[in-house]
Amino acid sequence: MTEALSTKPCVTLAIEKGVALITMDRPHAMNAFDRTQRELFQSALQSADAEAQVRAIVITGAGRAFCAGQDQHESAAMDAAGSAARIDSYMALYEVFRALGKPVIARINGVAAGAGLQIALMSDLRIASTQARFGMTEFKVGSAAIFGSTLLHSIIGEAAMKRLVLLAEIVPAAQSLALGLVHEVVDDACLDERVAEICAQVSQWSPTSVAITKSWWKEMGDELFAKAAAAARRGHAINFASGAYSLGARKFTERKQANPAGT
Question: Under a CB-based contact definition with an 8 Å cutoff, are residues 106 and 60 in contact?
Answer without folding.
Answer: yes
